[in-house]
């Protein structure tokens, strides 16, 4: 157990590592408990899948589940930075039906309903419409030499907020080349899709939710016209990393 200073709040945050390189803090657990209580009361028939709750296989029998990351971007939260968000999605039949992101440090509330568009603070979102892959804006700390034709832009620690940047036309492309979890991306991918972005895994395949194994290899969200070029650029790297043949 350790304590870290959260400058924005002016007090210490209790934190530890679930495993090396994966920090968690007391706030993660408190938000998770609050959301589980309130959302379960709101929709008792829905199952539950969250980063901070032991997985219950009973969720697989439910058509509806709540998919929650209580604090996505815990590192930024611990450090007193703004790049974190609370991510909540309602999944129906393996697809996101409602997606919500709350980024209080940024003063932002994101909402999407399947088939009804997406908003940030009530303003309708229109995703990036970039047509040339070269020069695409990517939220990242740095770009490898092979991607030097792309342009790095501000990267929040939260993968959900990085995806949301494409929805808000503040980035053209976000891609990951690692194993991740449904709760990281469920809400944000619906927001991006409803804003007009193209959404898939890194190999270009559709994403699914409420799977027995909640992991997926990579996520790719981009302006529709550059999505094919992004898959072409990344697929071989993805296959090697994921050991996919």
Describe the fold and architecture:
This protein is of the alpha+beta class and 245 residues long. The protein has a single domain (2-242), classed as Fructose-1,6-Bisphosphatase, subunit A, domain 1 (Fructose-1,6-Bisphosphatase, Chain A, domain 1), CATH 3.30.540. 25% of the residues lie in helices and 33% in strands. The chain is built from five helices and 17 strands. The strands form five sheets. It has a seven-stranded mixed beta sheet. Helix 3 packs parallel to helix 4. The longest helix has 17 residues, at 26-42. It is globular and about 50 Å long.
Main sheet makeup: 7 strands, mixed
- The CATH first-level class comes to Alpha Beta
**How is the largest sheet built, in terms of strand order?**
4-5-6-7-8-9-10
User: What is the averaged pLDDT score?
Assistant: 91
Layout of strands and helices, then pairs:
Layout: E1 2-6, E2 11-19, E3 22-25, H1 26-42, E4 47-50, E5 64-72, H2 74-79, E6 85-92, E7 95-103, E8 108-113, E9 118-120, E10 123-124, E11 137-139, E12 151-153, H3 159-167, E13 173-175, E14 179-181, H4 182-195, E15 198-200, E16 215-217, E17 220-222, H5 227-242
Parallel strand pairs: 4-5, 11-12
Antiparallel strand pairs: 1-2, 2-3, 5-6, 6-7, 7-8, 8-9, 9-10, 13-17, 14-16, 15-17
Helix pairs in contact: 3-4
């Amino acid at each position: 157990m350790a304590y870290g200073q959260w400058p924005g709040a002016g007090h210490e945050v209790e934190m530890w590592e679930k495993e090396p390189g994966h920090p968690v803090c007391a706030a993660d657990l408190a938000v998770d408990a609050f959301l589980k209580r309130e959302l379960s009361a709101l929709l008792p028939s829905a199952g539950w899948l969250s980063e901070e709750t032991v997985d219950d296989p009973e969720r697989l029998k439910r058509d509806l589940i709540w998919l929650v990351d209580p604090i996505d971007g815990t590192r930024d939260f611990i450090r007193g930075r703004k790049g974190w968000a609370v991510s909540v999605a309602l999944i129906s039949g393996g697809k996101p039906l409602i997606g919500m992101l709350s980024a209080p440090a940024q003063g932002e509330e994101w909402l999407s309903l399947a088939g009804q568009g997406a908003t940030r603070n009530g303003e309708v979102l229109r995703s990036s419409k970039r047509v040339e892959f070269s020069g695409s804006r990517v939220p990242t700390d740095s770009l490898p030499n092979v991607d030097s034709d792309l342009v790095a832009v501000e990267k929040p620690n939260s993968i959900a907020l990085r995806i949301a940047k494409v929805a808000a036309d503040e980035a053209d492309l976000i891609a990951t080349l690692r194993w991740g979890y449904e709760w990281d991306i469920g809400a944000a991918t619906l927001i991006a899709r409803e804003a007009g972005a193209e959404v898939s895994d890194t190999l270009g395949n559709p994403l699914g939710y409420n799977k027995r194994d909640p992991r997926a290899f990579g996520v790719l969200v981009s302006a529709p016209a550059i999505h094919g070029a992004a898959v072409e650029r990344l697929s071989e790297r993805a296959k090697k990393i994921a050991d996919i043949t």
